[in-house]
Amino acid sequence: MRRRWMAAVAVTVAGMLTLTACGGGGNDGAAQSPQADAAKKVEVFSWWTGPGEADGLKAMKEIFEKQNPGLTFFDAAVAGGSGDKARALLTSKLQADTPPDTFQGHAGAELQGYIKAGDLEPVNFLYDELKLKDVFPQQLVDQISVGGQIYSVPVNIHRSNVMWFNPGVLKDAGVTEVPGTIEEFIAALEKVKQAGKVPLSIGSEWTAVHLLESVLLGSLGTEAYNQLWTANSDWSGPAMTKALNDYKTILSYAGDPQDDWQPAAKQVADGEAAFNIMGDWAYGYFHNPPDGGLGKTSKTDFDWAPSPGTGGTFMWLSDSFTLPKGAPNRDGAVAWLKVAASKEGQDAFNPKKGSIPARKDADTSLYTDYLADALKDWGSNKLAGSIQHGVTVNDAWRTAINEAVGLFQQSKDVAALQTALADAAKNSGQ
Amino acid sequence: MTRVRRWLPGLLLVSPSIVAIAVFVYGMLGWNFRLAMTDKHDEVSEGGFVGLENFIGIWDQQRWSLSVNHAIVFTVVFVGGALALGWLLAFLMEKGLRGEGTFRAIYLFPMAISFVATGVVWRWLMNSGTGERAVGLNRLFDNLGLEFLQWQWFRDPDWGMAAMAIPAIWQMSGYVMALFLAGFRGVPEELREAARVDGCTEWDVYRRIVLPLLRPVTLSALIILGHISLKAFDLIVAVSGKQIITDVPAVFMWVAVFDAHDPAKGATIAAYIVIAVSIFVVPYLVWSLRKERRS
């Protein structure tokens, strides 16, 4: 009996050795062939597959291939809003040390996870060569730097603190002025409720975190909000308690949660709900023809303003491209980053994507309607970074905030939310 | 030599799968448990050994107790519902329904669909809008004049997970029916006749004769459903996404590993899922091994 077991173990071990030997041998052979190819192919990893964004990427691709005849663009986009699935795949690629030539990441703390893990190469040489520090706003450059090194090239800017509303619903409810402060906002929500419409539409749980960042900015003010992400943050103080109580009040006017942000925005467009606080990607959804949008007319079917209490501040988020360490085609990646950084590239991409360029010297005539407003504010407003979209907090911290808000939506316990947020800040390791 | 010749070819035949299972199942399991006992709370750090700290610490987290509660509610409703419905369907079939083959196929069809597809459809059916905004089942209730039945479905804070079990019951009860039907057919007609002669009602025949004989079938069904239920991930993500209101350990594990980048926490949750599943599976294996040896 015992000898039989020994034999089984021996055969198993022998089998395992054979397997590993095969594995090793196979690798050597396989690595050869793509290398020859890799000189031409540039693998660009993104999550731009939806209407608008995919068109923008294609426009940049055309410029890239025109300027670099020897290189071909390889689109490694993975579908899924805000890069949920793409980033899970990217994590495994980076851990296996097989990075794409360049990948998309939210500028800010989200990118800093990759920087700390040593996945990225600094691109200061590009900034010096193309004098990019003069054309990008200083705060944006700060957010993508660690210890004086810059790690990515921002392509676009989105605004998070936008309040979308239905002018017709407001008129029927007797709200004559667009609410500019949190108090006015709550009064307006109450009037809409009396009129029998949904005062504020919301989607799945992440949209509640999106709402939270606007309320925090509006209630605390820009200075205090920006301080939350520094060493002298105050998550436990009375100002935060008041902000979270405001949040609770505002959330009490929210309608039934919808499946995602689009159905929530649609409630405003259809006149079922009065307000929705969502990033400016909602503009494309409202405005684009029925193929990918709702085909509504701006200013009559829907209108916008900075979310209450945040006038004069631009809460931003930005997509940027990186240079991973060990990129198979580093020169190709650098050529792509040059296109992504250029005025031509950004002006081709952004009007299609429905965002504004990160550069300050863009051609303003290309940006009309909402985008013209956004471009004007981006140049003149104070800046604050988004929470949910990776600017101010790293992934671990953001997940903890999402967890706290998700639990709060059930318990409605402000004290517990504040404790959870304070703990999240303390444990973030940021 | 002859002894070797007797067992060696057999062993060689199965050794690839032994190796594969040793590496990819037990090797990975061991690696996961080791990871769960370290403080590797981000992808960069090395992770020192901390013993059972993660296993104990996780119980302080509100989200963990919530997701465990959800998993229990989901499992009880799903397993109970699928067993009851499957048994009822099998009972009706057994009574000599006309067109039995057709019905059997219809009830088995949902098994052929993946949980993701089921989830996408039921996400719409179980939309939480009520009143004017109702769609899906709530709209159906509205049209039938049964407005009082409208509710929040999986968004209900107390019974949301029970609603989440409905699509799972819909999908798996046909399979349970097939198991029971095979079991019913295996009960010798003489036993039933003997009971009837002794004055049993038809109901008593099932309760006192057939059901006890079906205990092994019930047990297999319980175990198969139980381990599916504890690992539930795809259905829940397809219906509601990764939201706290329908959080279960498997979803929490995904969030810990891929969103929060905390490998040790993810491994801890994975270890708990394995332990919970083995509570179902191991006694069954022991029991069936013993039975085999006896026969």
TrEMBL record, chain A:
Keyword entries, A-Z: Signal, Transport
Any Gene Ontology CC annotation: cell envelope
Protein name: ABC transporter substrate-binding protein
Native organism taxonomy: Bacteria, Bacillati, Actinomycetota, Actinomycetes, Streptosporangiales
Signal peptide stretch: 1-21
Subcellular location: Cell envelope
Record family assignment: Belongs to the bacterial solute-binding protein 1 family.
Residue ranges crossing the lipid bilayer per the database entry: none
Predominant place of localization: other
Organism: Planobispora takensis
PANTHER family on file: ARABINOSE-BINDING PROTEIN-RELATED, BINDING PROTEIN COMPONENT OF ABC SUGAR TRANSPORTER-RELATED
TrEMBL record, chain B:
One GO biological process term: transmembrane transport
Membrane-topology annotation of the record: Multi-pass membrane protein
Organism of provenance: Planobispora takensis
Predominant location category: membrane
PROSITE patterns to which the protein is assigned, alphabetical: ABC_TM1
Locations listed in the record: Cell membrane
Protein name as annotated: Sugar ABC transporter permease
Transmembrane segments: 7-29, 71-93, 105-125, 159-184, 269-287
Lineage, highest ranks first: Bacteria, Bacillati, Actinomycetota, Actinomycetes, Streptosporangiales
GO cellular component: plasma membrane
Family according to the record: Belongs to the binding-protein-dependent transport system permease family.
CDD domains: TM_PBP2 (cd06261)
Keywords annotated in UniProt: Cell membrane, Membrane, Transmembrane, Transmembrane helix, Transport
Domain ABC transmembrane type-1 residue range list: 68-286
Pfam families for this protein: BPD_transp_1 (PF00528)
